[in-house]
Amino acid sequence: LDCCPGGAPLAASDGVPAGLAPDERSLWVSRVAQIAVLCVLSLTVVFGVFFLGCNLLIKSESMINFLVQERRPSKDVGAAILGLY
């Protein structure tokens, strides 16, 4: 495939597009680094919110179970009823 004039490669061996001036090259590398850092930070925030939400949900569920009274009567009530007969 001879798509480039003079047979110049599309990308250099380090993955940076060939044919860029040195200033454009450093700008491209810094842009790729910014995108990579932004992706990592975004994933960190998303997983942090997810795990924090799950932890709060588990804690609130256990607090609700602690506060809810049991539906069945206690053993003391049963003993009092049997003592009346």
Beta-strand residue fraction: under 5%
User: Describe the biggest sheet?
Assistant: none
Helix-strand makeup class: mainly alpha
List low-pLDDT spans: none
Protein name: Reprimo-like protein
Subcellular location: Membrane
Organism: Dipodomys ordii (Ord's kangaroo rat)
Membrane topology: Single-pass membrane protein
Mind explaining what this structure looks like?
The chain is mostly helical and 85 residues long. It has a domain at 43-73. Helices cover 66% and strands 0% of the residues. The mean pLDDT is 74.
Attribute tags:
about 80 residues; mainly alpha
Question: Which helices and strands appear, and what pairs or packs with what?
Answer:
Elements: H1 22-67, H2 75-84
The gist of it:
This is Reprimo-like protein. The protein is mainly α and 85 residues long.
